[in-house]
Amino acid sequence: MNASETAAFAALVHRVAMPTPPLPRVADTDAVAGFDAWLAAAPPLNRVVLRAALRLRARPRIPGPLRDALRAAASAGYYGDPAVMRALGYDADAVVRRGRALRAQRERP
After folding, report:
1. Which DSSP string corresponds to 53-94?
2. Could you identify which of 80, 85, 96, 105 might form a hypothetical disulfide with 90, taking C-beta atoms 3.0 to 4.6 angstroms apart as the criterion?
């Protein structure tokens, strides 16, 4: 994404998530970088349409389903950040460690 698309998506994430302490600021998460990576892997038509939607200044002009898709991506990007999940009481790394420990325990003779 270019700088204006990045800023537009970050602003959208902020509007959707409305983070307040103890939740981290949008800039302190991987929400924008995650969306950029997801966008890079998306089919070309999806990528073009989503990037064009981010450039629209008047949000009411964005068709409802596309607006909903951007809002969902913003929400998933923010709330999927490890620091945000930990602040909300979910530690994905701890879950992975427990799963690996259980798997190792089952594999022992």
Report:
1. HHH-S-GGGS-HHHHHHHHHHHHHHHHTSHHHHHHTT--HHH
2. 85
Nearest partner of 65 among 53, 76, 78, judged by Cα: 53
The sign of the torsion formed by the CA atoms of 19, 80, 26, 40 equals: negative
Q: To the nearest 10°, the Cα dihedral for 6, 9, 20, 80? A: -100
- What confidence tens digit (pLDDT) does each residue in 57-77 have? 666 778 888 889 999 999 999
**Taking a C-beta distance cutoff of 8 angstroms, is the pair 10, 27 a contact?**
yes
User: What does the domain layout of the chain look like in residue ranges?
Assistant: 3-107
- Going 32 to 67 to 50 to 11, the CA torsion angle's sign is negative
User: pLDDT tens digit string along 5-54?
Assistant: 999 999 999 999 999 999 999 999 999 999 999 999 999 999 999 999 99
